[in-house]
Amino acid sequence: MKTVLKDALVAAKGLLGYKLVYETPDGRISGYIVETEAYMQGDPASHSTKGRTSRTEPMFGTPGTIYVYFTYGMHYCMNIVTGEKDHGQAVLIRALQPVDGIEIMKLNRKTQSEFKLINGPGKLCQALGIDKSLSGSHIDNGPLKLEKGLEVVESNIVTSTRIGIRRAVDMPWRFYIKDNPYVSRL
DNA sequence: CTCTGGATTGAC
DNA sequence: TCAATCCAGAGG
Questions:
Q1: Measured between alpha carbons, how far is residue A16 from residues A93, A149, A157 in Å?
Q2: Footprint of strand B on the protein (CB under 7 A)
Q3: Which residue is nearest to nucleotide C6 (CA to C1')?
Q4: Strand C nucleotides where any atom sits below 7 Å of a protein CB
Q5: What integer pLDDT is reported at residue A1 of this predicted model?
Q6: What pLDDT digit, counting tens, does each position of A45-83 carry?
Q7: How far, rounded to the nearest angstrom, does the alpha carbon of residue A136 sit from its chain's CA centroid?
Q8: What is the pLDDT of residue A179?
Q9: What's the whole-model pTM score?
Q10: Does at least one atom of strand C sit less than 7 Å from the CB of A72?
Q11: pLDDT for res A6
């Protein structure tokens, strides 16, 4: 795990196929990571680019720290911090292929379609029931964990530009599993 | 304190 | 194509 989180670009690709697991009082919710985006140190599109603030403080923590932020007045998005402590790098988890707790997620998301359950960063947090309170926790000692999942070979990874950002729009730092029906979009 | 805009989503 | 909805961050 340590090597996977060595750097945001390495992690964004390397985390594809990993199983993201969330232990809740109602049961285990999990899914395979199928889509990610890297936010680098000094990246104009990253929340960390302007330095430490109360919101982005977790981004400067040790690799494996969870960073959750609230946006557009209604959505949470979840990241896993990578790289060295104090570098401010992270990987945005954009989509999962549902594995455990599918019924719970359908209730959380108010939809029956398994394909629209977690095919976007805001939907991911809604499906799992994640909010800001998890920001700053760590995958090694919190309710949110990573486990080995699918094997994904380099030739099955598609690279593209990131979605929804205004700055650094040309950086090819979004990655997803080729032909996977659970990604947010092609 | 006020103002602006956003790593989104779902409805039209 | 666009409104919903509210907080972080910047500026006064």
A1: 9, 9, 8
A2: A 37, 39, 45-48, 59, 67, 71-75, 77, 79, 90, 92, 109, 111, 116, 120-124, 162-166, 184
A3: A73
A4: 4-10
A5: 80
A6: 999 999 999 999 999 999 999 999 999 999 999 999 999
A7: 14
A8: 97
A9: 0.97
A10: yes
A11: 96
